[in-house]
Amino acid sequence: WEFSGQWKVTPPEIEFKLEPEGKAALKFNVALNDPAGLIPPPKATARWDWSDKWPNPMVMSCAIPLVPHLTIPQAAAKPGLAGNIQDWNDAASFVLDKLYFSDPAVPGKRLMWDGLSSLSARIFFKWDKENLYVAALIQDDEHFDADGSQENSPGDIFMTAFLVQENGGPEASHEYGFSLCAGRDTVIDYKSAGADSGPGIKFKSRLDKDAGSCLYEAAIPWSRLAPFVPESGKEFRFTAVVGDADSLR
Structure pTM? Predict the structure, then answer.
């Protein structure tokens, strides 16, 4: 099993053998120790030999079908987007601070992770009638600026994607990237549906190389997340990704 620290899975692994066409029932106890924050469900991976002549095992993974929820508070005050983390004290937040959150599909990335200072993040959300406010405080021991390419940025980047729906209508997706692009704060519109009108997205970053951190702050007008209209109790789906570009060491 793979899981974040808020979960407890016992036993964490079981070794078993099967005859051809055989079946086995494996029992695990899965419990949530700390319900705070946005907590992805545990994932189980099974590995088995394909044949004596094939050195690589077969692998199949599945996650417990749970959807984590985050309650985003209405903002007590608008953030100043001036690099002040205190502006986010009234926001909901969650952390990406375990190897568990690293994408195993990226070759070698898990081998390069060396703890919280290597790469970790706290993500913040709050809202008012005008904007959805998003911030990411990212710890990274080696910051790389993007090279100026809007389509395929090789530099460090923070990305958010939203799937929104209104009154039973069709779902609309919106995906934005935020980066220091050739030394300038840049918003990259990867994929948006009907979000090309109204006020633009405001974005500022503050890089502190001595502390090994970068604070990304954004105000996304609701017109950029159309057709969603905010009010208490409504829901949308989202994901947040931290892209890290490191030199080969």
Answer: 0.79
